[in-house]
């Protein structure tokens, strides 16, 4: 049985930093280098910025805008 993961439903292109980050995975619209198992909903919704490492992420990757 496959686990349902609907975090992509919370992705807000207009208020989230994710869509402008070089580490965002557009093929899933819910993962990145820091959160390979799923970006937290607060970040996807744009309610929380990812300008410093936060608890629960992998490594030290933070929001890095595309050039």
**Share in helix:** under 10%
Secondary-structure element pattern, one letter each: EEH
Provide the residue-averaged pLDDT.
89
Share of β-strand residues? 5-15%
For this entry, give a set of tags:
6% strand; 7% helix; 1 helix; little secondary structure; 67 residues
Explained architecture:
A two-stranded antiparallel ribbon has the order 1-2. With 67 residues, it is mostly loops. It starts with 23 loop residues before the first strand and ends in a 22-residue tail after the last helix. It is built from 1 helix and 2 strands; from the N terminus they run ββα. The mean pLDDT is 89.
In short:
This protein is largely without helices or strands and 67 residues long. The protein is 7% helix and 6% strand.
């Amino acid at each position: 049985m496959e686990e349902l993961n609907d975090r992509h439903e919370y992705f807000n292109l207009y208020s989230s930093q994710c869509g402008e980050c070089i580490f965002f995975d557009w093929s899933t619209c819910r993962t990145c280098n820091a959160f390979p198992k799923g970006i937290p909903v607060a970040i996807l919704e744009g309610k929380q910025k990812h300008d410093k490492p936060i608890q629960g992420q992998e490594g030290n990757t933070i929001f890095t805008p595309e050039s």
